[in-house]
Amino acid sequence: MAETHQDSGGGGDFDLTQFYQIFFEEAGENLDLMEQMLLNLDIETVDDEKLNGIFRCAHSVKGGAATFGFADVAELTHQMESLLDRLRRHELQPNAAMVDVLLESADASRSLLARHQAGGEGEAMPTADLVRRISELAAGGGVVAVSAPAPQPVAVVAVAAAASTASAPGSKAGRSLEIKVGPLDHPEQADAIRELFRDIPGLGEITSMPSDRKDVRLFAVHTASTDDELLDLFAFHVSRDFIAIKENVAQPTVAAAATRDDPPAGAPLAAFPGFGFFDGSPGAPVSHGGVTVPETKGPAKGPARPVGGAVAQPEAATIRVAISKVDQLINLVGELVITQAMLAQNSRALDPAVYQQLLTGLADLDRNTRDLQESVMSIRMIPMSIVFSRFPRMLRDLATKLGKKVDFVTQGEATELDKGLVEKITDPLTHLVRNSCDHGVEMPADRVKAGKSETGTITLSAAHQGGSIVIEVRDDGRGMSREKILSKARERGLDVSDQMSDQDVWQLIFAPGFSTAEVVTDVSGRGVGMDVVKKNIAALNGTVEIDSSEGYGMKVSVRLPLTLAIMDGMSVGVGNEVYILPLSSVIESFQVKADAVSTIGQGSQLIKVRDEFMPVIELGKVFQIPRFNSEKTSDIMVVVEADGSRVALLVDELLGQQQVVVKNLESNYRKVPNVSGATILGDGKVALILDTGALVRRSRH
Fold first, then answer.
1. Alpha helices in 436-583 (DSSP H)
2. In whole angstroms, what is the distance from residue 371 CA to residue 362 CA?
3. Is 450 helix (H, G, I), strand (E, B) or coil?
4. SS3 labels along 243-264
5. CATH classification code of 566-699
6. Distance of CA 150 to CAs 188, 258, 270, 306, Å?
7. Residue 1 confidence (pLDDT) above 80
8. Which of 92-101, 128-137, 448-457, 608-617 has the highest mean pLDDT?
9. What is the fold, at CATH topology level, of the domain defined by 384-561?
């Protein structure tokens, strides 16, 4: 049992809670990785490396949970580790039931960790049934072999990196060694060395030996590796200065060592005192009348595992930063962009010959500000794989529930998107993927009758296109029936006709409550909730397009801006007002004569641009801008595109292109029609950012 560590100044107990957040984050990452590897596991032809990877994830979570005293998590992951250990040693053949129980256990571990992270609020999720099922599966291949899990150090160091330095047994039959580790401020650091002999095949055998000093650990080792190889390997955990190796020491039997030091595989973890738990730690075993039970109240202070200088730490490749700090940095960069725009605007009247040095400095400031903005924005950019990774598990469970066979394919996982957008796009994508599985992909028998393979395919892809990201959800299912949608629309009293284009028909499913599903279930048809999907995407300045072919499948394309914070815009003047058009929506601009515009119907206007007629929208009329100069007329058109359609906006003048910091108008004021946000110009005035999608939709009515 580790002793309470006192600091050099004679202070109180070391506060273990400062490491909680790191542990919760790393445990979540390990559980996510384990789930991903389990879903990709081919139980017919098992890959040993994948099994070892899954085992390492469970082992890391167990060790961390034991270190911090979260006994319920440690117990469950210990049972998972026991089953995985038998699988990777080929004592059992993996099957679907094992994958299912491991996935359920990962979910349960997340729930237990979330409860501990919340301070122990609420009732703990029962895990007795999971533990029983895991134990039965672990014993299903015969007598359970004794394995020897060892305590986990506080820092999970990459054993895989160390493994490359360890030699497999060579021509030597092996040699017996005595390894002395210490004196150490935290002697439990030496337990990491035991882990290496367990995790690296062929390294040898190790057993603990009695030591007459509390700060020194002794081990008896049988190995074929050289001293230098062992020292290189141990240096990942304990400095070479604290390791001494001697030859010709009798080696105790492994069985005896296992009996003395370690619990057998599958045995309750809490029943073995000293297994990674500290006195008084949250969730540590507590004795009540001879019966040991885990204490599962919220996190509390306790003595820490070693974090001292004796451990050789590799240089960190990443750091963890609170998202609030990143948001604050982005806001400051936004203000810097506004200030730079103000300086640039005020410097236009300066004489270049007199103020050459000042103008050169301002040009450098402009360039450096843009580079800084791009670098800071990239901090918030995260790969789409973060979103995509949650769908394989969801589809697996859903397909099993529906009795369907579905392959899930992802493309463009490395495509990056702003973290704020990723969080908001996850729910709409989840709905689209679920609908593809339920309403799109047919039952296996129906697919065979239609001449298809019985396994359907759902593809989720992401790619950059200009200043936007396009995410597509495709399936090779039954597609949508034009006749069925029109029939349902007529039943609901919608104004439809047989002459409508396919694109207009597909848009009908976005009507609130519209569904072609004959039976409403918890998954239901494509129409249930599709209006919410479109509304959520439109709130992100995004668009949704549908393409379908009956009998062959359908595709839903979602187009989003790369970020919501700063964008490139074109500023246009109408009267005395300035408006910003998203540059990604601008196609071209040109000067036009009044007689080039044709009026049709009830005041609708069209203009012909290279053999294509497009609607004309006068921004002055849309926003009811007063005219103080009657001689000034709008004779400039800017063509913008949204939702696959183009319109020509009639403006007075083009003011230029610039970066603008997007401010949310709805949260600071209220929702304004045809406006998606606002920005502050260099002269301190507020300019509205136009919603090109809303303007295009306005032209259709």
1. 444-449, 482-491, 502-506, 530-538
2. 14
3. coil
4. EEEEECCCCCCHHHHHHHHCCC
5. 2.40.50.180
6. 11, 10, 14, 16
7. no
8. 448-457
9. Heat Shock Protein 90 (3.30.565)
